[in-house]
Design a protein that fits this description.
624 residues; alpha+beta; Calcium-transporting ATPase, cytoplasmic transduction domain A; Rossmann fold; 4 domains; 7-stranded mixed sheet; 6-stranded antiparallel sheet; 20 helices
Length: 624
C-alpha cells in the first residue's frame, strides 16, 4: 500500500468512527435539542474529513472545463442531501465513495505491480572491463563492443556474445520459461536475464537504448496507449452519459414541484439518489482495468501484447495463418539426400556450395556445412540472389543455377522434378541439369498439440503460407493437421495471399498471422493481429508484431488466445452487470422506491464487484 493510500485509509477510519458516533447520538435523540445548524455541524465534520479532496477536485475541474465527472456528481449529490436534511446519508455516501476509490486504487496498483514484478529486469549497473580494472558503470554509458563481466546472480545488463565462461541463464522474466538456457562461448545472450552459475565475459553488441530489456519495457509502458474498441466506447459513453443523467436529475428535482405541486424535499432527495447511482465509476475503472490485467497475465506467461486493442482482436480470432520455417518447424536444415544426375555426389555438393557461398540463407548454410570444407569462391562471379527462387552465378565462365524448380524452369533448363519429401535444391551448370539436394527440416516439439489446443480455444481455421516447395509444405501441413496451405510463395505473394484470406473473414472476426518476426515483417504488419514466435531479442519482431511470444514455444499460442477471450468476456460481463443494476436503481429512485443506501450500492457496490471480477484476469496461468 502506498503512502497516499495509507493516508486515505486513516481518513476513512477516522471519518467512519466520527460518523458512527454521530449516528448513534442521533438515534438516541441526544442531538435533538441542537438547532438545525448544530446538527449539520456534527455530521459535517466526518463529511469534510473524508470528502474535502473530492469537493476541491470538483471545483478545480469546473474551472478547467471538466464539469461532468464523478467528483462533480458526488459533490452535487451530497450537498443536495445536506440541503434537505439527509445528514447521515450525505456523509455516508461520501465515506463509502472514498472506500470504493481506495479499493480501485489498490486494484490498479496491484495490476501494475504484477507487471512491474514480472518485468523487474532493469539492471542497475554493468561490470565494465577497463585498463584500470573492473568498474561499475551505468548500462547507458557502456559503448557497443565493450567487454562486461556478469557474475552469478546478476542480471545481464546489455545484449552481447559470450567470449569466455559457461553458465545457465534464467530467462523466466522474459519468456515465462522456468528451464534455464545454457550459455557457452559464442552464445548470444540478452539483457534482462539472470546469470545462474558461472562468471561470463560478454562483448556487447547493442547500446542500452537498443537493448532487448529497453525495447520490452517501452512496449509494456506504451501498451495502455492503444485502446480497445470497447474501451473507446466506454470513454465516449461516459462523455455523454454523465451530462445527460445530471440534466435528468435536475429535471427530476424541479418539474414535479413546479408543475404538479409536489414537495421540494422529496423530489430533491430522489434527484440525489439518481445522481449517486448514476456515477459511471464501475465502467470507467473496471473496463480499462480488465484489459490491463489481461496484458499483465499475458506478460507473466512470456507473451507481450502491445495494447488492449490487440488483446481484443486476438479474442475474436477465427483464422490463424502460420509461416512454416522457424515457426512450425525448427528451421534447422540438413542435407539428407544427394541425387546427382551427372558426376559424383561430392561434385554436386561442391557446385551447390559455390553457388551459395555468399548467401546467409539457412539453406545455403546447411549446404556449405554438408560439404565440410572451404570452396574457392574466387571462381564465382556476378552472384545474383533471387528472393524465393535461389542463386544465379557465373562459375568458370558458365552460368550456375542453385535453387528451386521454378528457377530452372525460368532459365529453360530441362530436368525432371524429383518426387522426394523435403526441400529440393536443384543445380544446373552451363544450361545442363546436374542433380538435386534434399534438405529436411523437422517439426517443432509440441506443434501438433498446440494447434489442437488453438482449435479448442475457438479458432475455426488454421492455414500455412510457405515459400517452400509444395511437397515439403504438404508433408508438414498433413503431419500437423492444418486446414489449408499455400506453397511456393514469393514474399510479395505471401502478402497477397494473406489479403485474400482477410477478405473471407466474417464480420466481427479477425485473422492472425504467426511468423518468426525476421523475414515476415510485411505479413505480420498486414494481419489483424501479427504474432511473432521465437523472437527473443529480435528487433524486427518487436517492431512488426502486435503480440510477441518471447520464446519458441508454440504451446503459448492457445494460452494467449485463452487469456484474450477470458479478458473480453470479463469486460463484457462488467458492462452488462453495471448498466443493468444502475438502470434498475435509477428507475426505482425516480419512482421513490429506492433510498440513498441502495444508491450507494448501485455506485460503490457495483464498482467493487466489477473490479473484483476484472482482477480474475490476473490469475490466469499458462496452459498445462
Amino acid at each position: 500500500m502506498t503512502s497516499k493510500q495509507r493516508r486515505t485509509l486513516f481518513r476513512i477510519l477516522l471519518a467512519a468512527a466520527l460518523l458512527t458516533a454521530a449516528m448513534a447520538l442521533d438515534r438516541l435523540e441526544i442531538l435533538a435539542p441542537l438547532p438545525r445548524l448544530g446538527k449539520l455541524g456534527v455530521f459535517l465534520v466526518p463529511y469534510l474529513i473524508i470528502g474535502w479532496d473530492i469537493l476541491w477536485e470538483a471545483v478545480e475541474h469546473i474551472f478547467h472545463g471538466q464539469v461532468f465527472d464523478e467528483n462533480f456528481l458526488m459533490a452535487v449529490a451530497t450537498i443536495a442531501a445536506f440541503s434537505v436534511g439527509e445528514y447521515p446519508e450525505a456523509a455516508a455516501v461520501m465515506l463509502l465513495y472514498q472506500v470504493g476509490e481506495l479499493f480501485q486504487s489498490y486494484a490498479v496498483g496491484k495490476s501494475r505491480r504484477s507487471i512491474a514484478e514480472m518485468l523487474d529486469i532493469v539492471p542497475e549497473y554493468a561490470n565494465l572491463e577497463t585498463p584500470e580494472g573492473l568498474v561499475e558503470a551505468d548500462p547507458e554509458d557502456v559503448a557497443v563492443g565493450s567487454v562486461i563481466i556478469v557474475k552469478p546472480g546478476e542480471r545481464i545488463p546489455l545484449d552481447g556474445i559470450v567470449i569466455e565462461g559457461e553458465s545457465l541463464i534464467d530467462t523466466a522474466a522474459l519468456t515465462g520459461e522456468s528451464v534455464p538456457r545454457a550459455a557457452l562461448p559464442g552464445s548470444e545472450v540478452i539483457s534482462g536475464c539472470v546469470n545462474g552459475s558461472g562468471v561470463l565475459r560478454i562483448r556487447t553488441v547493442k547500446a542500452y537504448a537498443d537493448a532487448t530489456v529497453t525495447r520490452i519495457l517501452e512496449l509494456v509502458e506504451n501498451a495502455s496507449s492503444r485502446k480497445a474498441r470497447t474501451e473507446g466506447f466506454i470513454t465516449r459513453f461516459a462523455r455523454y452519459y454523465t451530462p445527460i443523467v445530471t440534466l435528468c436529475a435536475i429535471l427530476l428535482a424541479v418539474i414535479p414541484p413546479l408543475f404538479f405541486g409536489q414537495g421540494w424535499g422529496e423530489w430533491i432527495h430522489r434527484a440525489c439518489i439518481f445522481l449517486v447511482v448514476s456515477c459511471p465509476c464501475a465502467l470507467v475503472i473496471s473496463v480499462p482495468l480488465g484489459f490491463f490485467a489481461g496484458i499483465g497475465a499475458a506478460s507473466r506467461n512470456g507473451i507481450l501484447v502491445k495494447g488492449s486493442n490487440y488483446l481484443e482482436a486476438m479474442a475474436k480470432l477465427s483464422t490463424l495463418v502460420f509461416d512454416k520455417t522457424g515457426t512450425l518447424t525448427r528451421g534447422e536444415f540438413k542435407v539428407t539426400a544427394v541425387r546427382p544426375a551427372v558426376g559424383s555426389g561430392e561434385e554436386l555438393l561442391e557446385l551447390a556450395a559455390l553457388g551459395e557461398g555468399c548467401s546467409t540463407h539457412p539453406i545455403a548454410l546447411c549446404v556449405r556445412e554438408a560439404l565440410g570444407r572451404e570452396t574457392a569462391l574466387n571462381r564465382v562471379q556476378a552472384v545474383q540472389e533471387i528472393a524465393g527462387q535461389g542463386v544465379i552465378a557465373i562459375l568458370d565462365g558458365r552460368e550456375l543455377l542453385v535453387g528451386s524448380a521454378r528457377l530452372l524452369q525460368d532459365r529453360n533448363v530441362a530436368f525432371s522434378p524429383a518426387a522426394l519429401s523435403g526441400t529440393l535444391v536443384y543445380v544446373a551448370l552451363g544450361g545442363k541439369y546436374r542433380g538435386v539436394l534434399v534438405i529436411s527440416d523437422s517439426v517443432k516439439d509440441g506443434a501438433r498439440e498446440a494447434l489442437q489446443a488453438v482449435k479448442a480455444a475457438g479458432v475455426d481455421r488454421t492455414v500455412m503460407l510457405s515459400g517452400d516447395r509444395r511437397q515439403a509444405a504438404e508433408a508438414v501441413a498433413h503431419s500437423l493437421g492444418l486446414d489449408a496451405l499455400e506453397a511456393e510463395l514469393l514474399p510479395q505473394e505471401k502478402v497477397a495471399a494473406l489479403e485474400a484470406l482477410i477478405k473471407t473473414q466474417a464480420s466481427g472476426r479477425t485473422l492472425g498471422y504467426v511468423g518468426d518476426g525476421l523475414n515476415d515483417a510485411p505479413v505480420l504488419s498486414r494481419a489483424d493481429v501479427g504474432i511473432a514466435m521465437g523472437s527473443l531479442g529480435s528487433d524486427a519482431a518487436i517492431e512488426a508484431a502486435d503480440v510477441v511470444i518471447m520464446d519458441d514455444d508454440l504451446r503459448k499460442l492457445p494460452t494467449a488466445i485463452s487469456i484474450a477471450r477470458k479478458t473480453l468476456r470479463i469486460v463484457k460481463q462488467n458492462i452488462v452487470f453495471a448498466l443493468a443494476v444502475k438502470f434498475i436503481i435509477l428507475i426505482l429512485g425516480a419512482l421513490g422506491l429506492a433510498n440513498m443506501w441502495l444508491a450507494v450500492f448501485g455506485d460503490v457496490g457495483v464498482s467493487v464487484i466489477a473490479i473484483l471480477n476484472a482482477m480474475r484476469t490476473l490469475r490466469q496461468k499458462a496452459e498445462a
